[in-house]
Amino acid sequence: MEVLVHISGIVNDSATNSYIVLLKGERGEEILPIWIGILEAGAIAMALENVAPPRPMTQDLMKTVFDVAGVSVERILINDLRENTFYATLCLAQDGKKFEVDSRPSDALAIALRHKAPIYVNEEVFRKQASESVDSWFRNFEKDGKGYNA
Q1: Cβ atoms within 10 A of the Cβ of 80, count?
Q2: Pair 21, 32: CB distance under 8 Å
Q3: Which of 27, 46, 91, 120 would you label with 2, given CA atoms 20 to 30 Å apart?
Q4: How far is Cα 142 from Cα 49, in angstroms, rounded to an integer?
Q5: How many other C-beta atoms lie within 10 A of the C-beta of residue 111?
Q6: 114-134 burial by CB neighbour count: b if 16+ within 10 A, else e?
């Protein structure tokens, strides 16, 4: 089973000098933190804030290529977690044919935002993510109107 999620926010993890994108389930029960790099965080943040860069970023280029080729992004799926690495799939369609492309979750999220495509997480991924570690990790953050902040 898959859970529809949205991006709740992006926070800085100063302990690892990286960023964390927070995915929250539509039911409000599931929260999935995914560690990403600074460039990926920027690409996601720009899409969340509807900021257009002066020159196309990789995900903007992909959107243009998809649009010109008649490829639609139907949805993305965060489908696995193995050895602390998340996996994602772009679910695409073109001329009535559907196909899937392997992707890093950060790229898939940035592409989904640009295409206004829904984001799903396989329930198994939530189960693999130890809830105790997520709960203890969240105790280090405070929630405000925009999401979670350190």
Answers
A1: 14
A2: no
A3: 46
A4: 21
A5: 25
A6: bbebbbbbbeebbeebeeeee
